[in-house]
Amino acid sequence: PDDATDDDEDDEMVDEEDVQQTPEELAKQKQEREEAEAKLRSQLMDYEIKSGDYQIQVHVIEARELKAKDYSGTSDPVVFVEMDFGEHKQKQNTVTLSKQLSCVFDDLLIFNLRNVDREEFEQGQIRISVMDADTLTRNDMIGAYTVDASSIYLQKDHEQYRAWVALMNEEDVADTGIQGYLKCSIQVVGPDDKLKVHHDEEE
C-alpha cells in the first residue's frame, strides 16, 4: 500500500510538471508583453494630453437586468452622469423611465469643460450612476460605473463605443455583485481634436 501511495504521488508530480511552461513559451510571453507595452507607449505619444478646452459626449443607450428597488418588483431608472475634473464639475441626467428593469434611453449628454489643466484632465473621472427615482424620498442607487477620462482618451478615436458595462453598488455593502448592465458610448474631444461621427449603419 505504501508503494502504491508513493506511485500516486509521483504521478501527481509528473502531472504538475507537464503543465509547467517551457522556456520557449515563457520567452514568447515576455516578448508579447514587451510588444504590448511598447505599443501603449507609442499610443501615449500619439495621444498627447494637453491643457485646454474639452468636450465629453456620453450617449446613454440602454439598460438591462437592473435590480428591482420598488415593492412592485420594478424600478424607475434615471441615469446621472458626472464629470469630476478638480474644479471642473458638471452633472446631467437622462429622462426617468417608469417601472422598467430593461429599457432604452437613447439620451446624448454633452459636457463642455473650459480651460482644463493637463493634470486635472489626467486625474479626471467620469461617473455614470443608474438610480431608482423616488418622488417623495431620496433616489436609490441601483448601480454605477466609473472610468478615468484619460483611459477613454487613449483609446482609438478617443472613445469607448457602444460598450456594455457592469453596474456596481458601492454605497450599500449588502448589495454585492453586478446590479445590472448599461450600454453607453463615451467620446472625449480635446484641443485640436475632431469629433468622430458614426454612420447609421454602424449602430
Explain the overall architecture.
This protein is an alpha+beta fold and 203 residues long. 26% of the residues lie in helices and 40% in strands. The chain is built from four helices and eight strands. A four-stranded antiparallel beta sheet has the order 4-1-8-7. The protein is globular. It starts with a helix and ends in a 14-residue tail after the last strand.
Give the mean pLDDT: 87
Helical content stands at 25-40%
> Unreliable stretches, pLDDT < 50, 5 or more residues?
8-18
Gross morphology is globular
Radius of gyration: 24 Å
Distance between the termini: 67 Å
What is the fold's blueprint, element by element?
Blueprint: H1 2-19, H2 23-46, E1 52-64, E2 77-85, E3 88-93, E4 103-116, H3 118-122, E5 125-132, E6 140-148, H4 149-153, E7 159-168, E8 178-189
Antiparallel strand pairs: 1-4, 1-8, 2-3, 2-5, 5-6, 7-8
Short description:
The protein has 203 residues and is an alpha+beta fold. It has four helices and eight strands. The chain has helices at 2-19, 23-46, 118-122, 149-153, and strands at 52-64, 77-85, 88-93, 103-116, 125-132, 140-148, 159-168, 178-189.
